Amino acid sequence: MTHAYRTHTCGQLRNTDAETTIRISGWVHRVRDHGGVLFFDLRDHYGITQVVADPASSAFKAAEGLRSEWVVRIDGKVRIRPAGTENKDMPTGLIEVYATDIEVLGPAAELPLPIFGEPDYPEDIRLKYRFLDLRRETLHKNIMTRTKVVSHLRNKMNDIGFNEFSTPILTASSPEGARDFLVPSRIHAGKFFALPQAPQQYKQLLMVAGFDKYFQIAPCFRDEDPRADRLPGEFYQLDLEMSFVTQDDLFATMQPVIMELFDTFKGNKTVRPEVPRIPHSEAIRRFGSDKPDLRNPIEMQAVTEHFAGSGFKVFAGMIAADPKVEVWAIPAPKGGSRAFCDRMNSWAQGQGQPGLGYVFWRDGEEGAAGPIAKNIGPERTESVRKQLGLNVGDACFFVAGRPEKFYRFAGDARTLVGKELNLTNENEFAFAWIIDFPFYEWSDEDKKVDFAHNPFSMPQGGMKALQEQDPLTIKAFQYDMVCNGFEIASGSIRNHSPETMVKAFEIAGVTKAEVEERFGGMYRAFQFGAPPHGGMAFGVDRLVMLIVGASNLREITLFPMNQQAQDLLMGAPSDPSPKQLRELHIRLNLPEA
After folding, report:
1. What does the pLDDT look like over 58-69, one tens digit per residue?
2. Taking CA 413 as the corner, what is the angle to CA 407 and CA 416, rounded to the nearest 5 degrees?
3. Per DSSP, what are the bridge partners of residue 40?
């Protein structure tokens, strides 16, 4: 043997290697005793090879002592598996290695969680022993897919003429909409750096500096509460910016990149080729969400006119009392049974709603069934059916009120109907651009107009719109890309005019002096010839989550925190030492327990 540990990997051997003397090393995956003959699977990064030792083998005694997850070196001879014992699901399934010598390279203590079989296990144990968890096949495969996705994106961005730049990690606070992680400065007592929520200002400054096309697989840091599709602490995004571009230019540049990515990693799923552009307000009305899942064919419609002045006094009274009240219908093809309608009504009550009104049409029964149908009468019910294109065997649910108060609930109902009735195609990736986001929104908490999303976006209509329009009617050149109900990218054409930038902030209650203080670098830069520019950022974590079909970002991230924003593996966050606090001129003022 010429190498201390291996001549081949555990995923490399084939039937063409039969009768070859080899050396492999890896982890003992599982051990099986078949009537005195020992079989064990040896696993490394590349795959699994079956190893056999019988009492006639010089390695038999050593094999008897092996336990799961021990690291061992195996010398042996490759042989074809006996007929009927092949495993055609494994690349190495036609061969096995007859062991002649075994060396234990790293024994393992009793395992705190099982590797083989990947049974469900408490998350705190999985995260504390993440180095063991990462040995599990599915998680290991997901992490490697993530690596390949990042490599694919990086190569593609280079191919289409983008330049990769690294922007600073220690920076100043930025109004990205979340809390900053602050880093105290030892040299400048009492002052703090912030970890970047995104490289927003730096990438815009790169455009002002004349670099034209920027991208970065950028680490971003936000002190947010954790949830399934967003990790606490840090995440990564494909960040990009371009000069002298319109919104259409950005779509034309990045849509093929993302479609090619999903086509490359789609597995047995399909990628819907159409990518519609849906105005934000239309997405809310049709789907009850600004990140609609287009695999679900259900589209909501307003049916207010059919309830105005009707015998259904609850809705009719609301409509008469408030001109902003609307009634929305959620069609449910093939949902025309009282049992299904009652289940949906119970679900709505579980969401804190009074219920979910419905009508349905049954075989052998003229007209619609259900309390609402009886109250509004057959003529109005038939008008609803025709408007929505429903038939016998179908149902329809109704939500009433001011749309801004109920649209999320209606969207959740649409999603549930699609899943319950198997209308949502789970084996497809369906994309859309959501465009024309509102530039401002009303803050009930602060009782003032505030930015709805990115404050650096260009308002549609520019300075004229800011001067003449009701702020709440102004749209932004801002856009999201969504896939299967998830936002996977967000971006905008930037406001590169200093005068327009100041005016936009003034409407949100931020003075010119505050703009110059908080965004001085960018404000100054815009005085010296700023090109029109725009960009976006794709969430790498969400892209990978969709590609591998994971429901939680912890299944595609190497060393994530738990739901309490703690790193159980490394014990972070941890207590600082008194010396560290003295050097930073910091005294703790902790809340009472």
Report:
1. 999 999 999 999
2. 145
3. 31, 51
